[in-house]
Write a structure and sequence with these properties.
Strand content: 5-15%
CATH architecture of one domain: Up-down Bundle
Order of helices and strands: EEHHHHHH
CATH class of one domain: Mainly Alpha
Number of strands: 2
Oligomer: single chain
CATH topology of one domain: Methane Monooxygenase Hydroxylase, Chain G, domain 1
Mean pLDDT: 75
């Protein structure tokens, strides 16, 4: 960038003559375009893929693999940086950026695993706590603009099982009136004028209604946990997008 010169005149105690000297200062700056286009920009683009792992549906099975793939890609770039930089005690700015990005992606992968565990809470799980329902399902859902949650993310494997259970429950009690009819005909009791058969029919209908109510309660509990998982996914997606953007702007500003 430049080479300014400074003339110095020094008088030593041993001699009366002054000793002049000229000091030249070389101002150097690294050409950063190679590192920006080959190491920094690919890292920024790859790091922006990490928050998109929260946007993937939990039933797709690709949430964890996306985070691990991004982490491996950043590890490869980190190895390239380590090979091109001289070994020293001080860590360069691009090395700090890679370490911070890898730490953030590791945290996002761990949070993804936790959210998938919440999403796959089955019917045997306990209900959503009141504080989580108030904080996550009401306030955070409005903040992240999540309104219709759970309808498109239901597991297709649970509906056939529930349908078979309903058919089996409905089919089991449906045979009892026929058996009662045969028994009543054997005893000589008319089917249309006997109140005991109406009581049996009411008990069978109540049993079927109870089965459907329990099935709907289990579906409602599962849907609430899925809603909690989706709201947390959307919230962490925006948080990590903001973190990646701020880190990139900070690094580019310090490099400039």
């Amino acid at each position: 960038l430049g080479m300014p010169a400074t003339r110095n005149v020094i008088t030593y105690g041993c001699c009366s003559e002054p000793y002049p000297d000229v000091t030249y200062t070389l101002l150097l700056r690294r050409r950063a375009s190679f590192y920006i286009f080959n190491l920094l920009l690919p890292c920024i683009m790859v790091s922006f893929l990490a928050p998109l792992g929260f946007y993937l549906p939990a039933d797709s099975g690709e949430k964890g693999s996306l985070g691990v793939t991004v982490l491996l890609a950043l590890t490869v770039f980190q190895l390239l940086v380590a090979e091109s930089m001289p070994p020293s005690e001080s860590v360069p700015l691009i090395g700090k950026y890679y370490i911070a990005t890898m730490t953030m992606i590791t945290a996002s992968t761990a949070l993804t695993i936790f959210i998938m565990n919440v999403h796959h809470c089955g019917p045997g799980a306990r209900p959503v706590p009141p504080w989580a329902r108030r904080l996550i399902l009401h306030h955070m859902a409005r903040l992240c603009c999540v309104y219709e949650v759970g309808e498109s993310c239901k597991s297709p494997q649970r509906a056939p099982g529930g349908h078979r259970a309903g058919v089996g429950d409905a089919g089991g009690p449906a045979e009892s009136p026929g058996e009662g009819q045969v028994g009543s005909e054997a005893r000589g009791c008319p089917w249309d004028h006997c109140l005991c058969h109406h009581d049996a029919l009411l008990r069978n209908v109540g049993y079927i209604a109870g089965c459907f109510r329990r099935h709907r309660a289990n579906q409602r509990r599962t849907g609430e946990w899925k809603k909690v998982a989706k709201v947390m996914d959307r919230f962490f997606m925006w948080v990590f997008f903001l973190m990646v953007f701020l880190m990139s702007v900070l690094v580019l500003g310090n490099a400039a």
